[in-house]
Amino acid sequence: MSEKIYAVKYGGNAMKSPELKKAVMEDIVTLTKAGHKVVLIHGGGPEINKMLQKIGKEAVFIKGLRYTDEETMEVVQSVLAGKVNKDLVALIQVLGGKAMGLCGMDGAMFLCEKKQDDVDYGLVGEVVAVNPEPVLAAWEAGAIPVIATIGMGKDGQAYNINADTAAAALAGALGADRFISMTDVPGLLRDKDDPSTLISQVDLAGVEKLIEEGILAGGMIPKVGACTAALDAGVPQAQIIDGRTVHNLLAALAGEEPVGTTFTK
Predict the structure, then answer these.
(1) Mind giving me the DSSP string for 64-124?
(2) What is the pLDDT of residues 128-161, one digit of tens each?
């Protein structure tokens, strides 16, 4: 069996059910025990929203990205790198794996600059450099790296990074064989309200066409953008799959039947 490198992005909305979360972590432990190298990059949007609600602060999104002022950044850092990250680490270890919790500030894994656009996103970071060393060190120690997507600027400023964007950049830096984004939809849909309109395969030219047709919108923009970025960074294949289906990760990698949407060059 040839060893593969899998970069798995696990979305906050796909984490809501404890049973499903357990099944995803079981898949990751299974892949690791089969000799593959897996890195788990996670979000945690619902947990962040819950904490913001507790302190009476409204969650604001612009073009699918969370507007992050200084107070929101503190919440993002404590919830993502603290609670969500450590809960996943603990679950993997309970299931017989060995996990190491990290965030993008550790070892300057994700070096960022403030995202520049025609709008102000606050402390949202654009990844300008990736240092894969902390991930390689975790693998060397026989551990599954579990990564919270917080980056840092050259001045030490913490930045909130979209988890899909960060995961794609890391997949490229690691020379991953596949990038998989697990979310709370079946994949890329022509009609977002109709699961039967799933687009099972698309290439880069096809993505351009979908943008022109207005099919890509909201939170799907960064997800598809991440898949195309992973391909551009040399990852041969990227996939968006439904994290709400039990053991969908193993099914997607087995490749016996199409799962979700597969992106190729």
Answers:
(1) TEE-B-HHHHHHHIIIIIIIIHHHHHHHHHHTT--EEEEETTGGG-EEEEE--SSS--BSB
(2) 999 999 999 999 999 999 999 999 999 999 999 9
Rounded to 5 degrees, what are φ and ψ at 16? Answer: -65, -35
Cβ proximity of 240 and 224 under 8 Å: yes
Q: What is the pLDDT of residues 236-262, one digit of tens each?
A: 999 999 988 899 999 999 877 779 999
Two tokens at 48? 């962040």
* pTM passes above 0.90: yes
CA distance 47 to 41: 16
Taking residue 242's Cβ as centre, other Cβ atoms within 10 Å add up to 19
Q: List the structure tokens of 170.
A: 């890391």
Q: pLDDT digit string (tens) for 184-221?
A: 888 988 888 888 889 999 888 888 888 888 787 777 87
Q: Tell me the C-alpha distance between 222 and 162, whole Å.
A: 8
Q: Which residues contact 134 (CB under 8 A, 6 or more apart)?
A: 102, 106, 107, 109, 145
Distances (CA, A) of 155 to 77, 120, 126, 163: 17, 20, 15, 22
